[in-house]
Structure formats: structure tokens, C-alpha cells
Amino acid sequence: MTEYQKRWVADDGTNGKFLRVDSNRYLLVRIMAGIYMPQTEFHTGADCSGSDGDANRVLTLQNLSESREELVVVDKMVLERDQDYTVDHKSSNSTITFLGKIWDNQRIVVRYFI
């Protein structure tokens, strides 16, 4: 396979590259420019503002840019945006406000794409 054949451009303009799997096979992968990267944060309710069992507790995320979409799970329950929580993107971070009660011992997983 020539260098030219190893390069590929997707319909959306992002680049890709063939990587050798073994002597006869190649794997096509996209270069990460222009593709959203997933980030996962693990927290407990104790990481939120407010007191144990309060509603409207706020969790500050570490991301520095506006996420495109997120998945919020509290104790294995997937929450729905605007019904169970809201998101506020700021210049230095993002915050999630839980509209229902959050207990300090609850496990919170937030997966977002930047």
C-alpha cells in the first residue's frame, strides 16, 4: 500500500489514516481533529454543594469547554436533562444542578463530549 493509499478523507472533511494490523491487513482510523472526545467524571453527592438530601445541589465539572451532550447517572439511574438536572456552561468549567434530592453517599457518573 502506498503512502497515498494510506491516507483517506471522509465526506465530512476529517482525515483518517490506515494503520497496519498485520502484514496483509490495515485498519482505517480517523484522526481526532474535529471529532468529539468523551470524558468521564466520577463523583459522589458529597462533591456537590449544599447539604445531604437537599434538592438543587450543584456539581462542578472539570471540563473547560462547552460539552456537546452529556450522560448523567446517579446510582445507576440515567437522568434526563431539564427534567432531573440542568447544565450551565461557564468560561472555566460547567456545572450541573440536580433538581431532585441528592444524598452524599450517592454515586454520580457524568460522561460528556468535548
Relevant terms:
three-stranded antiparallel beta sheet; 2 domains; 114 residues; mainly beta
So what's the oligomer here?
Answer: single chain
Whole-number total of structural domains: 2
Shape: globular
Could you give the count of β-strands? 10
Order of the strands making up the biggest sheet: 4-10-6-7
The proportion of strand residues reads 35-45%
Provide the structure class: mainly beta
The helix-strand sequence is HEEEEEEEEEE
Mean pLDDT: 76
What is the helix content? under 10%
Low-pLDDT runs: 1-16, 26-33
Number of helices: 1
Termini gap: 34 Å
Provide a quick synopsis of the model:
Helix content is 4%, strand content 44%.
Explain the overall architecture:
The structure is a single chain. This protein is mainly β and 114 residues long. It has 2 domains: 1-35, no CATH class; 38-113, no CATH class. It is 4% helix and 44% strand. It has one helix at residues 3-6, and strands at 7-9, 15-20, 26-30, 38-44, 57-61, 70-74, 77-78, 85-89, 94-98, 107-113. The strands form 3 sheets. It has a 4-stranded antiparallel β-sheet, with no helix packed on it. It has a 3-stranded antiparallel β-sheet with strand order 1-2-3. A 3-stranded antiparallel β-sheet has the order 5-9-8, with no helix packed on it. The longest helix is centred in the first third of the chain and has 4 residues, at 3-6. It is globular.
